[in-house]
User: What shape does this take?
Amino acid sequence: MPAEVFFTDLRTKSGNNLLDKVGRLFDRAGLADLIKPQDLVAVKMHFGERGNLAFIRPQFVRKIVDRIRAAGGKPFLTDAGTLYVGSRANAVDHIETALDNGFAYATVGAPVVIADGLKGHDYVTVPIGLKHFQEARVASAACQADTLIAVTHFKGHEATGFGGVFKNIGMGLGTRAAKQAMHSDVIPVVDPEKCVACGRCTEWCPAGAITVDETARIDPSKCLGCGECTITCIEGAVEISWKSDSSTLQEKIVEYAYAVLKNKKGKAGFISFVVDVSPNCDCWNYNDVPIVPDVGILAGTDPVAIEQACIDLVNAQPSLPNAAVNLPPGADKFRGIHHDIDWNYQLAYGEQIGLGSRSYKLIKV
Ligand code: SF4
Ligand code: SF4
Assistant: This one.
């Protein structure tokens, strides 16, 4: 039996604007049924990196927040800190970036709670016993929330082909250490050109893996791959290896999505915006021209089905003029941009481990 995916296009008229459509989509997809009175409802967001404008508009989020409150829930907007040194690597920077991008209480009607705490140390260890991870370190606020509504911007991704629900909740709700573990089996390295030998990283390294003379050095036999030094170094001298091959990375992200959803049976819903489909991840401090025309908004309770529907809808479009790829309707836009990456791994593996079905029925709202 195919999974139901609810879809609204972006055509509007007076009395039926895009905010009305989002509210109706929420209702038709049955997302209110996931919420019991007094539930703490985590609304998983990407608040946008500074300089990147492809994030989901706060006004849409306000509509979702209002629906959650109407169902008796207590919504909060959430995300976890990043692995790289950007504008969201600790809770203070993250909240300030969210405010800069318009996610203030006055606009969205819900507080922002950074899910893994001030410096990314607040997590719950979730046993999963899968191929890559026996257990996962999931940001505590996401784990402890009663209900999860993942609000996702669907776009391309330089490491996984596309970035959708799995990227949003799997990578997004892992701690920094988890993100490092997903991204690479290789330890961070120090750039001696940038290192000023201040020693700050040695104070924070939990494994005593760093020594400093003229420059810092990491002992690979001691390093735990926690990623702590990458955030501690304010010179940006500690670099992450992003060399994990894409199929492994995709499977690891999906395993983390499994961990995030493990205690959310019947308590997780997904809303994906297929608009401003930029070629690369929203974590960059820029967003390039969208690769296809805006498509619409999807909702449902099966993350695999929603990802598959998003991919199919994007690939059914023609490329936009001046975009990073020039392909006709039906051609794979993400393979066209990120040539070496087969995005199918994340969908196939998600289906294999029981997260949902690639077979879906699109229901127009
Ligand atoms: S914190 Fe950065 S600059 Fe300071 S010693 Fe460590 S790597 Fe070098
Ligand atoms: S990743 Fe963690 S364990 Fe490895 S050197 Fe950096 S702080 Fe130390």
